Amino acid sequence: MATQKNTAGRVGSIAAGLMLATATLTLAARQRRLEEARLHVKRLELEELNSRRTALAHQQRMHWELLSMAIADPSLGSVIDTYDKNIPAEKRRQFFYANAWYVNLFHLYRSGILDQEELFGRLREIFQSPLLREYWEASKGQRATLKESSDEARIGLMVDGLIKDLDEADTDEWWVVGNPPPD
Questions:
Q1: Per residue in 97-136, pLDDT tens?
Q2: How far, in Å, CA of 138 to CA of 75, rounded?
Q3: What are phi and psi of 171, to 5 degrees?
Q4: What is this structure's pTM?
Q5: Which of 33, 163, 176, 180 can pair with 120 through a Cys bridge, CB separation 3.0 to 4.6 Å?
Q6: Are 101 and 159 in contact (CB under 8 A)?
Q7: How far apart are CA 64 and CA 100, in angstroms?
Q8: DSSP letter string over 58-100?
Q9: CA 159 to CA 109: how far, in whole Å?
Q10: Which residues of 168-183 are buried (b: 16+ CB within 10 A; e: fewer)?
Q11: What angle do CA 151, 154, 158 make, to 5 degrees?
Q12: Alpha-carbon distance 166 to 172, whole Å?
């Protein structure tokens, strides 16, 4: 009788060991599949980010090409001209060029090449130009049409604040004026 109990105990121990080993293998397989799924999701996210950056780069090239055409040929510029008609044609062409500079910085920010602090610094620099400030004032109607929650509207408000800070600064050291908003 003792031998039967001892044998039964061994068989039970072996069975429990096999069940534990099977559970461990099953758990390891699940963890491996979960990690593979995580890696797959990460790859898809990186592919999406790359596609987005590629699309933004293409958009920036197209914007520049279209603006270049408008700058070179005033008759084409009139197609997109929403500025006050009392502004001379040469000044409007300069505004198109100013827009190209601003949009270039905006795209650098949106594509992740510049962070918000770097964008702020570059904007602080280009808005030293009186012509850029004239352009900004002349284009406020265009910005008023933006969805308030958009990146463009948010950056536009940041520029408005920056220009105000620059105008009110008690220093000629423009590079220290204003504080970039946190990302």
A1: 999 999 999 999 988 889 999 999 999 999 999 999 999 9
A2: 20
A3: -135, 155
A4: 0.68
A5: 180
A6: no
A7: 6
A8: HHHHHHHHHHHHHHH-HHHHHHH--S-TTS-HHHHHHHHHHHH
A9: 14
A10: eeeeeeeeebbebeee
A11: 130
A12: 9
